[in-house]
Amino acid sequence: MRHQAGGKMASQGSKLFACAPAVHFFSHTMPVLLGLLLFSILLTPGDSLECETCIATSSNCSGMLMNCSANEDTCAVSLTESKVDQISVQNIVKGCSSTKACGQGPYSINLGKMFTSRGVAVCCKGANCSSISVPLPPINNTVNGKKCPACYSILSPCSSSDVAECTGAEDQCLDLSIKSGTIKITMKGCTTKSYCDALSQNAKKTLKEAAFGMIDGKCTEANKAPPSSRFPLLALSWLLLVKILL
């Protein structure tokens, strides 16, 4: 069965989101939001290659075929594990991508004691996408000497009084502002260059699905001056999250 994203789905997702109390939404989606974000910003509706498309808070999922855009040359599978308040959640996303996008390599995000996430997106085609095994990158808690402002908040401004000590390959400071309707979430912490590259690449995409929400993100090298550029990003993850978690 084939499926093509459209305005009806966006409308339904917006209605579901609007009905959710802000704090309830935040507490239930924080463990998976950033994990889903890495892959969801790579998804683009179109009419060429077909890929299985699904999302689930587990290590596997199955779904309908989605028509990809002409410049999407591969299917991809993303597996992430996110942890908040000592609660770990794995989530998987399958969909359309480009070889360059899903080949960014493993990533991690670290907001200090508040939130951590690790994951990877791998390219695949055909039946291989249904059976492919996606290994999570190993946990690396070795402090590397770099530090970033760390916080997250909903509705109110994010205070960066806390500091996250970056670990492993994390050498970038991440600053994300996520908006959908009246909801605004701000997140700051350490991340890897692979995650920042995914954000930067997505800035080239058109914002045809802006009804899903917008993400304004920036990365800067840890312990150095902040950058002058920001990346406007499409947050398709909002629709996927409200359909599953609310």
UniProtKB/TrEMBL annotation:
Highest taxon of source: Eukaryota
Gene3D superfamilies given in the database record: CD59
SUPFAM superfamilies to which the protein is assigned, alphabetical: Snake toxin-like
Residue intervals of the Phospholipase A2 inhibitor N-terminal domain: 50-130
GO cellular component: extracellular region
Family statement drawn from the similarity comment of this UniProt entry: Belongs to the CNF-like-inhibitor family.
Protein name, per record: Phospholipase A2 inhibitor subunit gamma B-like
